[in-house]
């Protein structure tokens, strides 16, 4: 090419080169802008509410999650300690619309209602069959509604009987298996002035009353509601016997009248003073009763609940898990939270710190957990044989009916037969209405 031809082409090339350079600089600027923007982007906020006591216990883990996830900020709002009050708060937030919650920290008994109302996202596609098999079967089943999974269990729970092993051993008694043995041992130790009270149970009008009563019902071979047929068993002879048992503990002064206003913590605190022989509670109490400041540290043991002759003991399956709300704008970030809290490692450390019950089977045989809580294999046995409160969408209303009439019966406002007849009739009406709506 001749020089003059080259000179002729130069301005065009120059034009292209300049355009190319401008384009490169522009792209570089855009990239820088994107990097600056994404590094200073606000993390996605994920909100949930849980009972105040538990929120404090989860605090270090929430901090750990936030430290590990610069793109997510988990905020835990403290709610009341009673499960039905927390449920009411979640329910009103969904009914009013614009609920601030991405996650629901959910009692096992809320699942059907929340799922049926359309407030939760299905989590069925998030875990494989193998992942699910690592959890306790009852906890997974309790998270299902109409074949879909809505709740991943974070911790399990089951009602157990605490007894003062020191008092029983010194006085030559085996731990009781039946209601009658429990009453007799209580009575004798009270007579000997070794304990002021025989048996402590949660008799306040709230969800804990229904959970505890399920166990007494089952111990007498009675039932509350059959979830498949919606048959109601509250007015059967055996169900009335179950109410009579609770009433007799008060009439015989085996239990203080105060239990009719006590929830878990009131019962646990009284047992911890050393003034009672037996207590029905959840496993969370074990850790607190074993605290170095506890007067009964090392002086108590646990066993499955008592039952009537020829029947079996029933432990009510409780437990808590996480579900993602329908209205959450960030379901994937919410899922990260679930993965973290349900992971084996986090559960392991949470159990070691608090004595709560894991929802993963492997942890019941974890060597560190066994060194600290040697009773875990026994607990696994109790929980694997526990009974679920009726998993029906109207559970909250059914439980409310039972609580009202049972409370009236144990506080002597209604005779047990009358109370249970009324409870059964109202429950049938509730379920009957639902049945005809579905027809
Ligand atoms: C415990 C159980 C829960 C139950 C509640 C009743 O928290 O885990 O399932 O509903 O006690 O008070």
Automatic annotation (TrEMBL):
<dbReference type="Pfam" id="PF01547">
    <property type="entry name" value="SBP_bac_1"/>
</dbReference>
<dbReference type="InterPro" id="IPR006059">
    <property type="entry name" value="SBP"/>
</dbReference>
<dbReference type="InterPro" id="IPR006162">
    <property type="entry name" value="Ppantetheine_attach_site"/>
</dbReference>
<protein>
    <recommendedName>
        <fullName>ABC transporter substrate-binding protein</fullName>
    </recommendedName>
</protein>
<comment type="similarity">
    <text>Belongs to the bacterial solute-binding protein 1 family.</text>
</comment>
<keyword id="KW-0813">Transport</keyword>
<keyword id="KW-0732">Signal</keyword>
